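Lab notebook, bench 4. The sequencing result for the construct came back, and we need a structural model before the next group meeting so we can plan mutations. Quick request posted to the team channel:

Model the 3D structure of this chain.
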Amino acid sequence: MSKDDPNFKGIRRVSEGIGAAREALQTPLLHQDIDLSVARSLAAGTALQLSIAGNSLYVDQKANTGNARLFFTPRGEVGSTPVTIYPGWIGYKSFVGLYLENDAQAGQTLRLIYGTDVDFRSSAGSGVTVLNSPRAAYYDRNPLIKQFSFGAIPGVLAPHAPATRWIYTVPANRRLYLEVLHVWVQRITVGAPVGQYGIDISYTPSGGASGTLLTLHSLDNTVAANRFTNVTPAAILSPGDVISGQDTDASTGGTVEFNHTAKGTEFDA
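Done. Here's the predicted structure in token form:
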């Protein structure tokens, strides 16, 4: 089924609750300031056209705020029913473009705050509470690029027991968006005999048991034989979660090159 609003072609349907967040329909708070010192009239053709869209409206209760009349019709036809708006007014109705008219009010302005699927609620002291104003995207919350890597290039490694080469713990009050994992192995000289060699990327949730996030192992004993894989997990790690890289070679003799890398963006939780 089309996600377009049936009344406005090309405009997404208004959704509710978690669906809005999942579909990225919920918008940050936006606003438009309007000077009310000059009279405007829809009938006289002097109404103010507001080129905005959403389904949530609130009139800020700042000082020197006046009143106005709002038309919700798509084109603001003469004869449509206006809604009187005033400081503290809250309205929920989908709109694509609004028209506003007002009497002349010297020294008065009006700040119209709006968005999509924003839940304004009246609160104590005649104020207003925004229950679900969306936060900034993760990449705007003090982001830090994190890369954890081990590579034997240009050197090589002899057989060895499992060894952890790098480890990262998500700090308190931070998260990590894990974006890329890369693992690569190459046989340099033959084992006699060959044993299983490879790489494991492990993940341990805070307070939980460790598990393997990515593994790559081989028994190929051919010189220059290599295997690799790249994945984009798009996973979110929470405070206290741990990710680490290990490699091992159970061969007798011979050498192998290992390379394993993780890259992500750390940000405020």
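The longest strand covers residues 174-189.
Will bring this to the meeting.
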